[in-house]
Amino acid sequence: MSPGTKMTFSRDQGIMVAVTFLGLVVFCYFSGFPLIIPLLVFFCGVHLFYFKKVKTGTFFHLALLLGLLVFAAHALKSYSHIIHFYLPIASIAMLTMLLFNDVQISFMMALLSAVLAGIVLGFDLNEMLIFFLGGLSGAYKVKDARTRGVIIEAGLFVSLIQVICAFLINPVINKDILMYILKPLAFNGLICAFVVIATSKIFETIFGEITNFTLLELSDSSQPLMKRMVVEAPGSYHHSLIVSNLAEAAADAIDAHSLLVRVGAYYHDIGKMVHPEYFTENQMVTGNKHDELEPSMSRLVIFNHVKEGIELARKYHLNRRIVDFIPEHHGTSLMHYFYQKALAEGQPEGLEEKDYRYPGPKPQSKETAIVLLADSVEGATRSLDEHTPQRIEDVVRKVINNKFIDGQLDECNLTLREIDTIASTFVRVLSAMYHGRVKYPEGKGTL
Fold first, then answer.
1. For the residues 192-201, what does the mean pLDDT come to?
2. Within 10 Å of residue 391's Cβ, how many Cβ atoms?
3. Tens of pLDDT along 32-56?
4. Of 58, 192, 225, 285, which has the fewest beta carbons less than 10 angstroms from its beta carbon?
5. CB atoms < 10 A from the CB of 244, how many?
6. What separation in angstroms does the CA of 357 have from each of 324, 348, 421, 446?
């Protein structure tokens, strides 16, 4: 969604928010919690909606995390012999960072989790600050984490920060402070780490989000779909690898989710496995099968690789974030070659351009937009007779400009500056890929 997009509530969303707010008020009233809690949550929700443009579903996912924390705090309160400082409050902010990969949302969840748990357990301001800073440090530490060892390190970091904060608030150390404050705060970080490791996959499945750990699993070449693609559509597999390298470099350049982009590019063309022989990159010695088909039939075959790709992705239970790359990497682009061929052949009567456009949707995120551009640029540069840096740059700029004019980037939140950075990155990577080589003299023993 573009930065200038105006967010509005639908009637159903308004009713849902009102019912949720009233339900929270009733729950707090009968549970004996302060009624300021619903108001705090409401204003945080308003901020997320209007300034972060968060989708409605994300509100309920975040609310569930906070609700579970409040429930755990309420349950812990019933056991007076258990020290309340053992409650893994920082795990909420850490889970938020892993699941949503958003620093601002994680900051807000660190604050809300510390305040809500503090209200339930009767913490004072100093104790809330300890858990807020602990949660914040844990969230920052797990950002872009690609191994579960980083989560353990984050837990240790949370322990260290919370102990330091407690010491700064009260620099006096005695036996009681050591046993009932510092020791629980030190163990708290490790408890948070184990909670995150144990529950991240569960929440990932429930929320439909995807963590870096799952992305790395999907990038493994032994993954069943990848193994099938290597055998059944080797040309498409090689094309996907090149697109993934291009797209990942561009994503890094504009600070998008580069690992998601790379894995999304791996799977964006899996539908070509169904009829690989109809796609140029897999036509080795058989010739172009589209020469024997009417343009309208070729159009259906090409259209179907998107539909078949989505069906394959669902059959293999790929996360929806990966599935999104399959239709969105084409958007509503025009199949220019077959459209022009149909016009040249003068068929059929009443032919319209929209008949030769992909069904969409257009890219809804920076990540899918980058793959759309990388896919188009890779195909265009591969067809060049001469791969000089200037020719490559001309083609890259022309392809990206055409996609922009065609409106394919209208529904993602790429800025003009980012589009220019993406183009420059494509030129750099492709120029290196097609760099000239020194011609070795022929002779005995040369290869």
1. 95
2. 15
3. 777 888 888 888 888 887 777 777 7
4. 285
5. 21
6. 18, 16, 28, 50
